[in-house]
Structures are given as C-alpha cells and as structure tokens.
Design brief:
192 residues, mainly alpha, 3-stranded mixed β-sheet, 7 helices, 7 strands, 10% strand
Length: 192
C-alpha cells in the first residue's frame, strides 16, 4: 500500500483500473488463498451459456461488498474500505452485503446446485451467514476438518495441480472441528 512500492501489483492498485481481486487476495493471503482460488477455478461449474443462470462459478467473500468475482477490479481505496470492517457474523457492515449477494446467487443457481465453501468452516463468520441462505446445499471439503489455513491451502493447491477433486459433505450437521490430520507429504508440494 506504500506509494514507494514499485512492483507490478502495487502500481496497478494505485491506478484507476485497479487489479483483479483474486490476484490481490492471493498476494495478501499467500498460500491459503492461492490454494483456494486455484482449486475453485479448477473445479467450479462453468456457467452454461445456453442458460439464464449466471450464478455458477467462483466467488470471493469480501469484507464490505459481499460476494465478488475474482476478476473484479479493486483499487487501494477498496482495500482500505475492506480494512475498516470486522469480518464477524454479527457485524451488519459485513453480514448484510454478504447476505444480499448470497441471496442473488441462490436465486440465480436454482435449488439443485451445490455451493462449496472453501473458507473456514470452523468459525461462524462464513457458515452462520451462508447456511441460512443455502441450507443443505452448502457443502465443504471433508478433508478440511482439523486442518489450519496453510494446510488447507497446500491441500487445495495439490488437488488442483493433480486434477483430483475432494469429497464434499453438507455443512449442516457436520463435524467441523476435529483432530489434526497427518501433515501433507512435502514430496507432493506444488512448485509455484
């Protein structure tokens, strides 16, 4: 965010056009977000061009703007606005835009489409908001239980690179906290 930063992403964020949200969050969050985005892009159902349904695909949860495409351009001003809001299920500044966007997606995708949450399933900040809207359609990778952010990011990167989709289970009624699984094998690390 420094005016002195000269690397490409910093320069683009200071310009009126901005930079893609997915790229910015990948830079800010590192391995965890890169894994989520790579996995989502590898396995999300593409919108059907013959359908009126526009809700399929990949969305990013933002602190102030609900769900947005990874291709949405953001600027430093947007990032500053994101930083002013506590991402907490009972904070209306976060919850209300997310609810509006999730309801719009739910209306677009109909009742048969599953929604896979790649964010934290152990805390209420996403689950409490999205569960109310998507109900039994809200799924998550079963392999997430017991894993921390970095482990989930590494797992998702490995799966995306190998073309291996994880098994999903409904959030409703699921065990979301558990024993830590064995560490990922360093030999299977994805070279970036």
């Amino acid at each position: 965010m420094s005016e002195r930063a000269t690397f490409d992403l910093a320069v683009r964020l200071r310009q009126r056009e901005g930079a893609p949200l997915g790229e910015v969050f990948s830079f800010l969050s590192g391995l965890y977000f890169r894994g989520k985005l790579a996995y989502a892009r590898a396995f999300a159902a593409a919108p059907d061009p013959s359908s009126d349904v526009s809700g399929c695909g990949v969305y990013i949860i933002t602190p102030t703007a609900g769900l947005r495409s990874p291709d949405t351009s953001v600027t430093l001003d947007a990032l500053r606005a994101f930083a002013t809001v506590d991402v907490c299920a009972d904070n209306p500044k976060y919850r209300e835009p997310l609810e509006r966007a999730a309801r719009a997606v739910a209306g677009d995708i109909g009742t048969d489409c599953e929604v896979v949450l790649l964010g934290s399933i152990a805390s209420s900040k996403y689950v409490d908001v999205l569960q109310d809207i998507f109900g039994a359609r809200l799924m998550f990778p079963a392999a997430f239980v017991g894993r921390g952010d970095m482990s989930r990011g590494g797992l998702l990167l490995r799966c995306a690179a190998a073309g291996e989709e994880l098994t999903y289970v409904p959030v409703a009624g699921a065990v979301r906290h558990g024993q830590r699984p064995p560490r990922l094998d360093p030999k299977t690390r994805v070279k970036l």
